[in-house]
Amino acid sequence: MALSARSRLREAVQQARDHEPRWLIAADKAEAAGFNWAQLPDCTELLTGADALEQVAANTEIDTVVAAIVGSAGLSSTWTAVASGKRVALANKETMVVAGPLIRATANETGAELLPVDSEHSAIFQALQTGRPREVARLILTASGGPFRDTSREGMADVTVEEALAHPTWNMGPKITIDSATMMNKALEIVEARWLFDVDPAKISVVVHPQSVVHSMVEYVDGSVISQMSPPDMRLPIQYALTYPRRTNGPAERMDFNTPFTLDFSPPDRERFPALDLGYEVARQGGTAGAVVNAANEVAVEEFLQGRLQFTEIVPACRAMLENHHFEPNPSMTRLLEMDRWARQEVLRWVAI
Predict the structure, then answer these.
(1) Are 44 and 18 in contact (CB under 8 A)?
(2) Cα–Cα–Cα angle for 216, 219, 224, nearest 5°?
(3) pTM value?
(4) Cβ proximity of 210 and 272 under 8 Å
């Protein structure tokens, strides 16, 4: 077993003490150099640097890789795991956003399994077990709507970082929480679903569901809609990806049907949340579009968190990068990484104007 961390090294060491993995990977060499490793158990070997992630992902002793590094930083190690034919529990949606066609083609060649961990894509994956691919009419991604689902466009202009980080349902890291507030997370999930399930973007819908109990749905050609329901608890989709195709007892919270509750659904306001249209556009284009928009969003979110960009400027920054980059329909992985770097630099210039 191996564990990895970037900056939360103290927690990583505690996990190593609890579970005694063979390797602990500190992906950031600078962070690792300044940390006291005295508490690391003797049975655990310390590896440092991003190359170590790929080294372990390719190791023949490893059969399952949980790809949970946030952002495009997780792309290389996930790519290595897929190229090595592993079972990949995919919690890093950016991998499919940036390089979906290449990842899918490589998995087909190596026999790698791609099992989604995102609650929405796990729900779709589970619901797809009830029918054949040709019988699918539509994939329906549910969205909580974030903290601003009822906020006017004018009200969003003055959104603070504290307000944007106050998610009403999920407890997540800052980047993912801001993505939920702009609904960029759902835009990225549209792109991920397009490549993960090999469906036309026209067959992917988004519906706002504030309770986050129905995690997503599949509509079949006969009109049946199959959903996956559970309280918002990420332990369930993680466990399902690790144990598939078996289901086992686990720690996830259960539904309580002895307590009255209601489930609400409404269409998203695509004028207030323009990220959704951007997501559909990226899903239709493919090629370099995903790499550029994903990189632009990562930088724009960080600029917002640092107070250098307004909340309502995050999505326009991403669209500007999409519209002004040199689109390539069939890029190599090397080219995708080059476009990722280009978009990051361009957003910083865009913010400085």
Answers:
(1) no
(2) 115
(3) 0.92
(4) no
